[in-house]
């Protein structure tokens, strides 16, 4: 299992679709992926879970991944959620 702590830094125009895009990205991977914010940990592949998390720009979160492609999963989610790539 891997863990990466990051600060969300999405461009303003990405904020409204961030949850949907994050869930889509997480679902591309075989690994189990969770995101934790302010003590709440949810399945990153669940739209309902991600909506209940309430994470917003500038929040500090932890991304957890466990599985064969955990490194790639964390790298892709980190790039998106820190604003390094916009889609």
- Supply the helix-strand structural class: alpha+beta
How much of the sequence lies in strands comes to 25-35%
Q: Which overall shape is indicated by the principal axes computed on the Cα atoms?
A: globular
Helix content: 25-40%
The stretches of 5 or more residues where confidence is low (pLDDT under 50) are: none
- Secondary-structure element order, N to C: EHEEHEH
Tell me the total number of β-strands. 4
Major sheet: size, sense and barrel closure? 4 strands, antiparallel
First-last Cα distance:
27 Å
Radius of gyration: 11 Å
Mean pLDDT: 94
Number of discrete helical segments: 3
Strand order of the largest sheet: 1-4-2-3
Summarize the structure.
With 87 residues, the protein is an alpha+beta fold. It has three helices and four strands, in the order βαββαβα. Helices cover 33% and strands 26% of the residues.
Explain the overall architecture.
- This protein is α+β, with helices and mostly antiparallel strands and 87 residues long.
- 33% of the residues lie in helices and 26% in strands.
- The protein has 3 helices and 4 strands.
- The chain has helices at residues 18-27, 47-53, 70-81, and strands at 2-7, 32-37, 40-43, 60-66.
- A 4-stranded antiparallel sheet has the order 1-4-2-3, covered by helices on one side.
- It is globular and about 35 Å long.
- The protein starts with a strand and ends in a 6-residue tail after the last helix.
- The relative contact order is 0.32.
């Amino acid at each position: 299992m891997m863990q990466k702590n990051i600060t969300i830094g999405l461009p303003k125009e990405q904020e409204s679709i961030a949850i949907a895009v994050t869930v889509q990205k997480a679902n591309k991977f075989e690994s189990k992926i969770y995101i934790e914010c302010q003590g709440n940990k949810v399945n990153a592949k669940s739209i309902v879970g991600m909506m209940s998390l309430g994470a917003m720009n500038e929040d500090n979160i932890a991304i957890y991944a466990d599985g064969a492609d955990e490194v790639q999963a964390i790298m892709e989610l980190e790039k998106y959620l820190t604003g390094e790539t916009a889609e």
